[in-house]
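Try this one yourself first.
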């Protein structure tokens, strides 16, 4: 694993002058210029109202990160670039790419999928982070921690700490609002992006492995992993020689699981006869595999007085929702012959 890949300097020496990179610095100026070009292009294509709706929030959030969040993350050696954060961005790009490719086959242009992906990703990120903060609140609001320190810890998403199931309510609400604004079929949009979400999840789990979170229990299998000193696995399962004892690489199991489910969703697409079936398949299979994976993972304790983790309990709720969704889909008219993703 490699939690920190490298550090970014907080300033640059340009012709003998020290120019700040973050805060009110060079990165913000570059982002403002790029944002202005992108906003002008979107306005020319879709009008100023659509440009504000699709790009306003992302531009503002990134600007806020450049001004306030990144300077607060400076650890003395610069701003650390975490493996988890990098894989999160790669996951978003890969998932969006697959969704764009699928969307073109049914008339969703790239702009529509990119705008949808941006909103779903950002709001899903908010939900996943809030769920993590609520579940592990002692990490953020411990004794002697100031409000500023707590907010900085919460904002440090690149350092790890997301719960996938926490993203579902906020991401689903964002997708529903997006489809309603543009008078698009939510069920067809969901079918379009479902495999991309799983592809993103697969890559994101590699980030979990780099970060050392979401780990499994001790094992003596040939592919067992020993995590280094300073990580949560090493603190919970320390080895006499340092680091952790050999553990299940549950993160990589989850990555492989999500990649296989993405392939299944893509393969099932031509067989689907009604809008929503591909998403319903994902909503059925992923909770089942998550329940099984949680048996190997040991980073979550039993919740709500049961022997199940919070993720297993949420998975049961999702399975119930999947049953309801299949019932609803079965009452819809089939697609016309030859109409498929």
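Now uncover the answer:
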């Amino acid at each position: 694993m490699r939690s920190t890949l490298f550090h970014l300097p907080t300033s640059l020496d340009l012709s003998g002058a020290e120019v700040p990179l973050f805060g009110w610095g060079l990165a913000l100026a570059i982002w403002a210029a790029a944002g202005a070009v992108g906003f002008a292009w979107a306005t020319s294509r879709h009008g100023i109202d659509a440009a504000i709706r699709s790009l306003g929030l992302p531009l503002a959030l990134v600007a806020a990160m450049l001004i306030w969040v990144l300077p607060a993350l400076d650890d003395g050696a610069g701003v650390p670039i975490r493996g988890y954060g990098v894989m999160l961005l790669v996951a978003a790009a890969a998932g969006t790419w697959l969704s764009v490719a699928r969307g073109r086959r049914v008339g969703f242009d790239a702009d529509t999928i990119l705008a949808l992906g941006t909103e779903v990703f950002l709001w899903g990120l908010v939900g996943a982070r809030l769920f993590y903060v609520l579940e592990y609140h002692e990490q953020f609001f411990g004794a002697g921690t100031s409000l500023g320190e707590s907010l900085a810890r919460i904002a440090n998403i690149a350092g790890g700490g997301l719960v996938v199931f926490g993203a579902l309510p906020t991401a689903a609400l964002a997708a529903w609002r997006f489809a309603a604004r543009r008078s698009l079929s939510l069920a067809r949009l969901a079918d379009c992006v479902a495999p991309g979400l799983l592809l993103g999840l697969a890559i994101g789990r590699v980030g979990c492995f780099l970060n050392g979170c979401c780990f499994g229990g001790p094992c003596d299998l040939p592919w067992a992993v020993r995590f280094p000193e300073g990580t949560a696995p090493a603190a919970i399962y320390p080895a006499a020689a340092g680091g952790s004892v050999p553990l299940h690489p549950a993160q990589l199991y989850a990555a492989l699981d999500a990649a296989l489910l993405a392939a299944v969703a893509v393969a099932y697409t031509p067989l689907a006869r009604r809008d929503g079936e591909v998403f319903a398949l994902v909503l059925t299979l992923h909770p089942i595999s998550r329940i099984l994976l949680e048996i190997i993972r040991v980073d979550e304790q039993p919740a709500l007085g049961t022997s199940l983790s919070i993720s297993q309990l949420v998975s049961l709720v999702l399975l119930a929702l999947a049953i309801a969704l299949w019932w609803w889909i079965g009452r819809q008219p089939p697609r016309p012959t030859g109409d498929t993703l």
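Discussion: The CA atoms of residues 127 and 220 lie 36 Å apart. Residues 1-77 form one domain.
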